[in-house]
């Protein structure tokens, strides 16, 4: 653990050569023929599945695009209290909000200033086999499967070893901190904040006043 030129390419030509009308017609005919060939290929593939006794459901699975599942909802904001004086700006009475999910499917959080992040890393160096929740200043990668800050080392403010990637430890738990240049154990308390209640609906309008009685 550690305390924490543009590529060359072809330039577009200034002048474009205009193809003769006969060549343009030939290109259009080729495109039409290619489209018909793809259509015939799909039709014969459909017949092949049908001839082998394939059911309608099997045909639909084979030829229709598959629907992708919607992403899970983000967890509510997280309030952190405790730690040591060295990292009070990141850990003591600081609210973190969930902003997305990493490659493993674990949520990751950031504070309001986007200076500090909390995330789960299955291997903080890429070779270490101990999974942990981490507090750090680096934005975690959402495509890397391990070493989410890409530094090849386990460098961070604080960590909590855990195989549970669904959430950092809630309640009071003992985290490992780098405080004043030394690794120490300190308690952190984490709690999800309740969503704020929706505003009350406006009061209904007052009923109209009754009409005045007719004059005698």
Would you write up a description of this structure?
- The protein is of the alpha+beta class and 216 residues long.
- Helix content is 20%, strand content 26%.
- The chain contains 3 helices and 10 strands.
- The protein has helices spanning 21-51, 56-63, 88-91, and strands at residues 2-3, 78-82, 94-101, 107-111, 117-121, 132-136, 155-156, 158-161, 171-179, 182-192.
- It is flat and about 100 Å long.
Which features does this protein show?
216 residues; two-stranded parallel sheet; flat; single chain; 10 strands; 20% helix; eight-stranded antiparallel β-barrel; alpha+beta
Task: Summarize the helices and strands and which ones pair or pack.
Layout: E1 2-3, H1 21-51, H2 56-63, E2 78-82, H3 88-91, E3 94-101, E4 107-111, E5 117-121, E6 132-136, E7 155-156, E8 158-161, E9 171-179, E10 182-192
Parallel strand pairs: 1-7
Antiparallel strand pairs: 2-3, 2-10, 3-4, 4-5, 5-6, 6-8, 8-9, 9-10
């Amino acid at each position: 653990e550690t305390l924490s030129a543009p590529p060359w390419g072809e330039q577009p030509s200034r002048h474009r050569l205009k193809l003769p009308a006969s060549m343009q017609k030939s290109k259009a005919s080729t495109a039409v023929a290619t489209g018909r060939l793809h259509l015939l290929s799909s039709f014969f593939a459909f017949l092949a599945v049908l001839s082998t006794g394939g059911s309608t459901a099997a045909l639909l699975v084979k030829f229709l695009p598959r629907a992708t599942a919607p992403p899970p909802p983000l967890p509510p904001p997280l309030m952190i209290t405790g730690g040591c004086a060295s990292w009070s700006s990141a850990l003591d009475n600081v609210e973190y909000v969930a902003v997305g999910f990493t490659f493993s499917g674990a949520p990751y959080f950031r504070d309001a200033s986007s200076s500090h992040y909390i995330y789960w890393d299955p291997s903080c160096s890429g070779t270490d086999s101990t999974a942990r929740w981490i507090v750090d200043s680096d934005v975690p990668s959402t495509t890397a499967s391990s070493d989410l800050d890409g530094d090849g080392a386990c460098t961070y403010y604080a960590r909590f070893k855990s195989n549970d990637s669904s959430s950092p430890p809630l309640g009071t738990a003992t985290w490992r901190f780098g405080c004043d240049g030394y690794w120490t154990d300190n308690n952190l308390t984490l709690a999800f904040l309740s969503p704020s209640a929706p505003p009350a609906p406006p009061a209904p309008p007052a009923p109209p006043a009754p009409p005045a009685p007719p004059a005698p």
